[in-house]
Amino acid sequence: MLSLTPIANTFSISSLICKCKSSNDTHPHALDAGYIRRAAHIADKSAGFTSPHPNFGCVIATPTGDIAGEGYLYAQGTIPAEVQAVTSAGERCRGSTAYLNMEPGDCDGDSSALSALLQGGVKRVVIGMRHPLQHFRGNAVRELRSQGLQVDLLGEDLTSKVIEDAQKECLLVNAPLICRAASRVPFSVLKYAMTLDGKIAASTGHAWWISSKLSRNLVFELRGRSDAIIVGGNTVRRDNPRLTARHGGGHMPIRIVMSQSLDLPEEANLWDMSEVSTIVVTQRGARKSFQKLLASKGVEVVEFDILNPRDLMEYFHDRGYLSVFWECGGTLAASAISSGVIHKVYAFVAPKIIGGKNAPSPVGDLGMVEMSQALNLIDVCYKQIGPDMLVSGFLQPLPDMAPTIPSPEETFVVDPTVSPYESSIIFFYKTWDPYGALSNFSPHPIQMPDENGDNVTWLSIEHYYQAHKFVGVEDTFAQDCMERIKSAKSPEEAARIGRSMQKQRPDLIRPDWDNMKIDVMYRALKCKFSTYPHLSSMLLSTAGSVLVEASPHDLFWGGGRDGEGLNYLGRLLMKLRSVFLEESSSSSESPSLAV
């Protein structure tokens, strides 16, 4: 049975390994399955700290069956799990077996994960699942096998009941990425708390608190593992929630309010943007004056011609969200279920009875009149949380691991997540896209001189760019922000620090930033593509194509959802490409010196 609670709470490697060793004759793949589950377990540690990213874990086991080293990928741009595990294992790595929950895959030119396995002397690699994204799928497997390593894939080279159970763990850890690869909606979870008689509030609407503190703490953790949290207008009016993760730092999910009429209070906790941003989605033309009020508070308003859960999820899929957490009332929950966008359900059942004919239930009318029409959860799991019972399961199975990708002539040119208008346009956005190395977030450190002329290493362009918002500002807090950005573990964290400080303390931003930011970005881009020959080659290979950063919400650096953005990042890359092409042409035309 597939566990639906966080893996870290459900798995003990030591006990499993002992059982596997003692029963190896009965289950020949039990030891492999145990180590793969361990790799999935440690991969899950990154969930909720830097998002959205795939979750990678690696375990190195010696021929005698002992763990020599392990590691997990904190975020793209940080040390790969395989490098950590091989380094930890040291000399014990030679002749060992590496267990990976998922096939390695990274943006252009980053082969450090595979190089670590080869140079460390690993003889065999066991992989829990192939990479879901088509442009990565099978590449690492082929490369490792071409170098003489034995590569076994769960479900292909290794098959048994215990292997099937281990592979389910691997699928669950990266369920959001699998959904992204196979469909145009994020992985969506519906959560609610109800009494034993199926009520989410009293007939008066009062709902504090149905579940126990332990259950609420788990909800904070689940929120933090998501990219966004969605509520309806009723929840905002009735509960005035904050929807923060409160899990000790790291990733904070975006808060989304879905309201057709925009009949929302002028003052609400969700309009406080100091910790995390809020997006309000509504019907086109709804309460324009209130939209202006929200905009003055920093709240983003997105209008839809027809507001429904399916179109909403497709929109946020295009914005790069992998997972969404629904904490809405019964009416919106029913609409989301009917639209087919909910994949999993978490139901906290409290041992309380409140009664009431008009007390609301967690899911509104689905149009069903017979019990035979009821929707059945699959892979159901039960877990006691204090006095409450958590019932969880899937409303629909995870998408097929091998989705059919339309040919370029049909629909997509670059990536199934992007629909270009012309074949001469190359879109890029996330680092896992085929042209992901064009992104500021790609894991390519750069060295740039500081004010004193000393070279300083930055982990990514995004680190450099965000920190330079505060250059030259004579304020200790501004200098502290620069140091925090410079030491951020990932580009996402650097961006989060820089953007939040720009919102909270605009007085700390250098006064010439609007005039200088394009120049700062161009210098960083030139350094990056000059430092890495394979990146400059990739950039030159795009000659003749228009480069567009496919960010649907950044209307300055990106192209916007409907091409309304200024696309300055794409423009700078094309400018740099022209410079490189001119230099390449001049170099090839220069006469050789006579000897």
From TrEMBL:
Gene Ontology process terms (BP): carbohydrate derivative metabolic process; riboflavin biosynthetic process
E.C. designation(s): 1.1.1.193
Catalyzed reactions: 2,5-diamino-6-hydroxy-4-(5-phosphoribosylamino)-pyrimidine + H2O = 2,5,6-triamino-4-hydroxypyrimidine + D-ribose 5-phosphate; 5-amino-6-(5-phospho-D-ribosylamino)uracil + H2O = 5,6-diaminouracil + D-ribose 5-phosphate
Residue span, CMP/dCMP-type deaminase domain: 30-152
Gene3D superfamilies in the record: Cytidine Deaminase, domain 2, Dihydrofolate Reductase, subunit A, YbiA-like
Superkingdom field: Eukaryota
SUPFAM superfamilies (UniProt xref): Cytidine deaminase-like, Dihydrofolate reductase-like, YbiA-like
Any Pfam family hit: RibD_C
Keyword tags: Glycosidase, Hydrolase, Multifunctional enzyme, NADP, Oxidoreductase
Pathway: Cofactor biosynthesis; riboflavin biosynthesis; 5-amino-6-(D-ribitylamino)uracil from GTP: step 3/4
Record-level Gene Ontology MF annotations: 5-amino-6-(5-phosphoribosylamino)uracil reductase activity; diaminohydroxyphosphoribosylaminopyrimidine deaminase activity; hydrolase activity, hydrolyzing N-glycosyl compounds; NADP binding
Cross-referenced NCBIfam families: eubact_ribD, ribD_Cterm, ribofla_fusion
Name of this protein: 5-amino-6-(5-phosphoribosylamino)uracil reductase
